[in-house]
From TrEMBL:
CDD domains found in the cross-reference section: ACT_3PGDH-xct, PGDH_4
Keyword Oxidoreductase belongs to the record: yes
Domain of life the protein comes from: Bacteria
Organism of origin: Ornithinibacillus massiliensis
Catalytically driven reaction(s): (2R)-3-phosphoglycerate + NAD(+) = 3-phosphooxypyruvate + NADH + H(+); (R)-2-hydroxyglutarate + NAD(+) = 2-oxoglutarate + NADH + H(+)
A GO molecular function held by the record: phosphoglycerate dehydrogenase activity
InterPro entries hit by this protein: ACT-like_dom_sf, ACT_dom, ASB_dom_sf, D-2-hydroxyacid_DH, D-isomer_2_OHA_DH_cat_dom, D-isomer_DH_CS, D-isomer_DH_CS1, D-isomer_DH_NAD-bd
Family label: Belongs to the D-isomer specific 2-hydroxyacid dehydrogenase family.
PROSITE patterns: ACT, D_2_HYDROXYACID_DH_1, D_2_HYDROXYACID_DH_2
Pathway the protein acts in: Amino-acid biosynthesis; L-serine biosynthesis; L-serine from 3-phospho-D-glycerate: step 1/3
Protein name: D-3-phosphoglycerate dehydrogenase
Amino acid sequence: MKKYNLLISDPLSEDGMRPLQEASHIHMVMNLNWNTEQLLENIGSFDALIVRSQTQVTRELIERASNLKIIGRAGVGVDNIAIEAATEQGIIVVNAPNGNTNSAAEHTMAMLMALARKIPQAYLALKQQKWDRKSYIGVELKDKTLGIIGLGRIGAEVAYRARGQRMNVIAYDPFLTKEKAEKMGIEYGSLDDVLRIADFITVHTPLLKETRHLLNKEAFHKMKPGVQIINCARGGIIDEDALYDAIVSKKVAGAALDVLEEEPFLNHKLLKLNEVIATPHLGASTIEAQENVAIDVSQDILRFFNGDPVRNPVNMPSLDNELLQKVEPYFPISEKLGEFLIYLTDEVVEEITITYTGDLIKNDLSPLSRKVVKGMLKRHLGTHVNEVNALYLAKKRGIEIHESKTYTKKGFSNLITVKMKTKNGTRSVAGTVLSGLGPRIVKVDHYHVDVTPLGHIIVIHHTDQPGVIGKMGSLLAKHEVNIATMQVDRSNIGGDAIMMLTVDKHVHDQVLQELLLFREIHQVRIIDL
Ligand SMILES: NC(=O)c1ccc[n+]([C@@H]2O[C@H](COP(=O)([O-])OP(=O)(O)OC[C@H]3O[C@@H](n4cnc5c(N)ncnc54)[C@H](O)[C@@H]3O)[C@@H](O)[C@H]2O)c1
Ligand SMILES: O=C(O)[C@H](O)COP(=O)(O)O
């Protein structure tokens, strides 16, 4: 049995990793002390890598990772992973988005309360033998307004907890509707509303181009005097210079920070301000969260190496069980349609249109489209192409991919038609899965056929006239090529026709050349699927 080498480069829960430890086909190496150079030097021998937020999985590291197939992030944020580079290399990235939600929300509440009551500052004074009750007068949370920017998993949990503290909550999230806010018992607002109204502002967005420095000089300017800020999401969402100035100018009364732009942060100027309290990125650091994320990521790594679809892909569409059950039977035919079609041309492919017809169209069919494109590219790019990088590789080669859906049924409960445009015209192939019989190619261009897409296939375009089949049969017999099945269709009597043969062995070029010597035969394609 093939053994896969797995590197774990950040501290993870041992209990959570047990499924991987017990898997006989996984060889786990835990190395928490490698510096960047050592990582670069050694990454080439690993099939899988698991990290938290500490290891920087840069483009350079990914480009050195010639055997890497999967990167697991035991947590939510993937801003330490060069996702684009991973996608280009066909490396799947998975994360564990649900396991630390609760802990991060609880940490946010702990920071909110500690900030409001100046607990860390008072504790520090006590440790320094100072009994000072005047300097640490706080504020109540009850009836204050908490502004939440980013109402995803953690933001929503924070909202529920803040309501429990009898706070008013106003939230901004591009996906938040008035109805949803009402249902949650909170107010829905724009970003400006949140900045203007809130007494405390907590951010819970990912770090993206759009969220970098979301709280900047202008944003602080719009806030209420005396506002307090919490960041238990990602360093970089807040412009740290702007926050520093806003605190020094007394516009902002305090800030609680679990994360900063550069970590570890020991000598940051913000930490020198009395108004700032901080923790060293501890939002997910609970026994429960660490066990949860380690289990989730381990299971996805195992699923991947067992050939099963992963649950939490970051650079591919995710497939829940319900969707998987519907689309999985169509995986083989989708890939074979792509593989088959590419044999029909010697020209550069400019455009691919994948049309889905039938019951399946209510679902996200992009996993099938990825299979089609993978099948097409595989012939020329080999095993390097997979479901992760197929669309990227097609785009890089200037191939436009279109997907369309139509309800109109044409005799099959579901039909997938793939059309390929080259400078010489278009060719197409359609396929389905027949109940109890499996995948079938049912149409090539406008001809109807019924062929299992497997093994060696000869596609012959010819003129419909007596004797062609006989001549062709004798020629194949002369070369000891046994015909397994044969399909014929034509445009009209005496017009253009197609013959599709499945044969028992690979057909050599010599046979193809001899077939083309027959006047009635216009084109021959030898296909090995
Ligand atoms: N401190 C920690 O240890 C810790 C632990 C867990 C998660 N996190 C971080 O917390 C953040 C949130 O995690 P999550 O699991 O809730 O993610 P999530 O994807 O469930 O939620 C993020 C939300 O932000 C919203 N959003 C995106 N752009 C926005 C914008 N410009 N303005 C307002 N909202 C926007 C999204 O619509 C989404 O609803 C992430 O940055 C994650 O990395 C930190
Ligand atoms: O995004 C996350 O999941 C958190 O920031 C946790 O990061 P960590 O795994 O390094 O604690």
